[in-house]
Amino acid sequence: MIRILKEEEITLISHLPCDKAGTLCALATGAFPHVPLLREEDGVGVSAGIYLAGGRPAIVIQSSGLGNMFNALLSLHGTFHLPLPIIASWRGVQNEVIPAQIPFNSRLPAILDGAGIPYATIMEPDELPRLQEMIRRSFAEGIPTVTLISPSCFDGGSCPAESFPERNRSVPSIPGSVIHTPQMTRYDAITTLAPHLGRALCVSNIGIPSKELHAVSDRPENFYMLGSYTQASPIGLGLALAQDREVVVIDGDGSLLGSSILPVIASLSPKNLTICCLDNGTFGSTGNQITQGYATTDLAQVASAAGIHNCVQVQTEEALDAAISEKKAGPRFIHVIIRPGNSAVPNIPLSPGEIRDRFMQAVSSGK
């Protein structure tokens, strides 16, 4: 499997371990740059960012994780026609001893058929050429593919002995935050941010944030998301890992509260990544329903607790202007307190293919 991945020039692997494929995960993470995931869905966005920056991503997971990925696979990779080969140890079908693995995993072929995602099954090691076929099909057709590999292919292997580093460390205190009645709207914040983007690559969150960014400052370096809840910051992480230009993500409180990506960003610590969390305390694009960020959860403290040390909270346009102007090494987390409300901006007059193609051209021309 490692030889096949190398032959297919895979440049980065996102992974969440499975005990049946522990040897594969250990060998793959030793052979390739990799992103250790906390939730499989985040790997979809990371892989999209890697591909948009010219890389060739793959994911290695347990098959049950596919259940966490379907919306992102179809709304992100299906909408923008992005490739993603997924290698999954197939649980629930071969001498499975854990009852909870059976209901979902035994139905996976039918589920993948229903989702229109091509897949192959590998029950014996001599069927491994199917993996290479699925990887090649993914990149040739710009689609996700799944290779389900029976645990029988891993029998006889063992995980290399784990060597754990010392865990002694100093945990920085998390300052309390006083949040005042916000004055800025999201449109005000984006209008303040846009002049500072320069040559940076920018990923904007789904719905009205992307529409507002397009209305304020349309540029080829903007990747406007059209769907895929929670995937803006994972895409930004993938972009930051795959190339050296600055990456700015315009994300929201609802999206970040629904994701497990902040500890992953902190652990990988890309110096060229800035997350701007525009926090109106609501799901703004769906009718301003209140989120936990409105009165109970402080996302600046969440980001700091996740391990992102360069965190700042701003509540005015002047403070936001100063924060984005400050050239500190990332990852940076700028928590922007704004009030609920959407501006009357039109839909983005670009097709998904046009957004993808001009963005990828902007990435490649700026390298």
Binned strand content = 15-25%
* Architecture (CATH level 2) name of the largest domain: 3-Layer(aba) Sandwich
The coarse silhouette is globular
Separation of termini?
31 Å
What is the class of the largest domain in the CATH system?
Alpha Beta
In total, the number of strands is 14
Q: Compute the number of helices.
A: 15
Radius of gyration: 21 Å
In sequence order, what are the helices and strands, one letter per element?
Answer: HEHEHEHEHHEHEHEHEHEHHEEEHEHEH
Question: Which stretches are poorly predicted, pLDDT < 50 over at least 5 residues?
Answer: none
Could you please describe the fold and organization of this structure?
The chain is α/β, with parallel strands linked by helices. It contains 15 helices and 14 strands. The chain folds into two domains: 2-154, Thiamin diphosphate (ThDP)-binding fold, Pyr/PP domains (Rossmann fold), CATH 3.40.50; 186-365, Thiamin diphosphate (ThDP)-binding fold, Pyr/PP domains (Rossmann fold). 38% of the residues lie in helices and 17% in strands. The strands form three sheets. The chain has a six-stranded parallel beta sheet, sandwiched between helices. Helix 8 crosses helix 9. The longest helix is centred in the C-terminal third of the chain and has 14 residues, at 352-365. It is globular. It starts with a helix and ends with a helix. The mean pLDDT is 92.
